[in-house]
Design brief:
The complex is a heterodimer. Chain A is an alpha+beta fold. In chain A, 59% of the residues lie in helices and 16% in strands. Chain A is built from 7 helices and 5 strands; from the N terminus they run ααααααβββββα. A 5-stranded antiparallel sheet of chain A has the order 1-2-3-4-5. In chain A, helix 2 runs antiparallel to helix 4 (50-61), helix 5 crosses helix 6 and helix 5 packs across helix 7 (167-204). Chain A starts with a helix and ends with a helix. Chain B is mainly alpha-helical. In chain B, helix 1 (2-16) packs antiparallel against helix 7. Chain B is globular, with a radius of gyration of 19 Å. In chain B, 27% of the residues are buried. Classes of the chains: A alpha+beta, B mainly alpha. At the A-B interface, helix 5, helix 6, strand 3, strand 4 and strand 5 of A face helix 3, helix 9 and helix 10 of B.
């Protein structure tokens, strides 16, 4: 009897968590529209203010990314060979690079229209792809796909595909070459150098 | 035209034998990199400045019109490729696009068809060969044309034959239209090339991976198999 009660409580608790967890397609929609809303009312962001843009991304988008999982996928077979410290640094540098790259395309977000494709998923699914068509005045629509997995802290993005080009697959060969030639520390170093050069480039001019 | 392309492939294949690079998809990497550097320089000196100028002197509405005009010219050939791939429904939709845009859209300048839900497709003979099961072969960087594969290069003469501008008779008109098309397309990619510069550790590799991925995705009409993070 007690055991049954415990089970019921557990089931109820699980149900509560389930109810709180935003479905992946809904989450993508909320986050994208939220970011767009912020950009539309902010002249600095439209003008490409770097520091501010990066802050918006870190605050609104990053919490929904599994950036360690993304890094693991991009590093591929070499990930297992990395020490805990190396993994941590790799994930940090890769995250910085992605945020900076993303930041340079975000000012266009204001003019874009999104078509959120309905997601057909079963309740037991833990790995889905959310599709969004991005319509920009005067360009062909671009399909953006978010590969997402369910975690205890909500659905998290672990890869983004733009027009069929997967971010993690694209980096995998580059990362593989660097690890082969210079080891994992070499890859960490190359990412850090790249991040510093991006920062230096932006130092002089804001645009 | 096709003889020249073949000679080019042969020259590249011959030159590539000395290569010691290890990526099996890109045995000609040393030659490809040289062509890539040449293309980058040509882009930087000629095409990119022209594209920037074009962007600065035109309104976005005019650029839309130019893009739509050329896009409309492509639709017949795109439809033919859809037919060759057995995608009859898409081919019919391409024909309807042409009918709508050429008439209501003033010779293609306005893309009413997209607003009506007739989606623009992206097809070429390289994709048709791919859908027939022809492998992509080695990766190639073509002078001025950029990333390609052996299959896509072999398909180029067919694409050229199917291009209404290449087949257009008066030479000066044809040249003017080709030039406008190239500059207008480059202008559309100004943002993308900046992202490439920022995102890539090695731009050559980044562009190659992006090209190969995109072609695979186009051939499977957007649904190649996907991956999961490793359990750790």
């Amino acid at each position: 009897m007690r055991r049954m009660l415990a089970c019921t409580v557990l089931a109820l608790a699980a149900g509560a968590v389930q109810a709180q967890m935003t479905p992946p397609d809904e989450l993508v929609k909320q986050v994208m529209l939220d970011i767009q809303r912020v950009i539309i009312v902010d002249k600095d962001l439209q003008g490409g203010d770097r520091a501010k843009t990066i802050r918006v991304i870190e605050e609104k988008a990053l919490p929904h990314f599994n950036h360690v999982g993304m890094t693991a996928l991009a590093v591929g077979v070499h990930w297992r060979k990395a020490t805990a410290e190396q993994k941590k640094r790799l994930a940090e540098e890769f995250r910085t690079l992605l945020v900076r790259t993303y930041a340079s395309s975000l000012s266009a977000f204001g003019d874009q229209k999104f078509e959120f494709r309905p997601l057909r998923m079963k309740p037991e699914d833990t790995d889905v792809t959310v599709q969004v068509r991005v319509l920009q005045p005067g360009s062909q629509p671009v399909l953006v796909e978010y590969d997402m997995e369910k975690s205890p802290r909500g659905w998290k993005v672990y890869d983004v595909r733009v027009a069929g080009i997967s971010l993690v697959v694209n980096y995998r060969t580059e990362f593989g070459n660097l690890v082969r030639d210079k080891g994992i520390d070499g890859l960490v170093g190359a990412l850090a150098t790249k991040n510093k050069s991006l920062e230096a480039d932006r130092g002089g001019s804001k645009k | 035209m096709s003889a020249r392309a073949l000679a080019l492939v042969a020259a590249l294949a011959g030159a590539g034998c000395a290569s010691t690079q290890s990526d099996p998809r890109d045995p000609l990497e040393s030659v490809n990199r040289a062509v890539y550097v040449f293309n980058e320089q040509a882009d930087e000196m000629v095409l990119r400045p022209a594209a920037r100028l074009y962007r600065n002197v035109t309104s976005s509405g005019l650029r839309d019109g130019v893009r739509n005009f050329f896009s409309n010219l492509d639709d017949l050939y795109i439809g033919a490729n859809n037919l060759l791939q057995g995608k009859v429904e898409q081919a019919v939709s391409d024909l309807m696009r042409i009918a709508v845009n050429t008439t209501l859209g003033f010779f293609g300048v306005i893309d009413w068809a997209s607003d009506m839900g007739l989606e623009k497709h992206n097809e070429d003979f390289g994709q048709t060969l791919g859908s027939w099961g022809v492998g992509e072969g080695v990766y190639l960087v073509l002078p001025l044309l950029g990333p390609s594969t052996l299959r896509d290069t072999a398909a180029l003469p067919v694409d050229w034959a199917g291009d209404p501008i290449y087949g257009h008779a008066p030479v000066d008109e044809r040249n003017a239209m080709s030039a406008t098309r190239v500059v207008a397309r480059r202008a559309d990619l100004l943002g993308a090339s900046r992202t490439l510069e920022e995102a890539a550790l090695d731009r050559y590799v980044f562009l190659r991976e992006a090209y190969l991925q995109q072609r695979r995705s186009q051939i499977h009409d957007g649904r190649p198999p996907r991956e999961r993070p490793p359990a750790d």
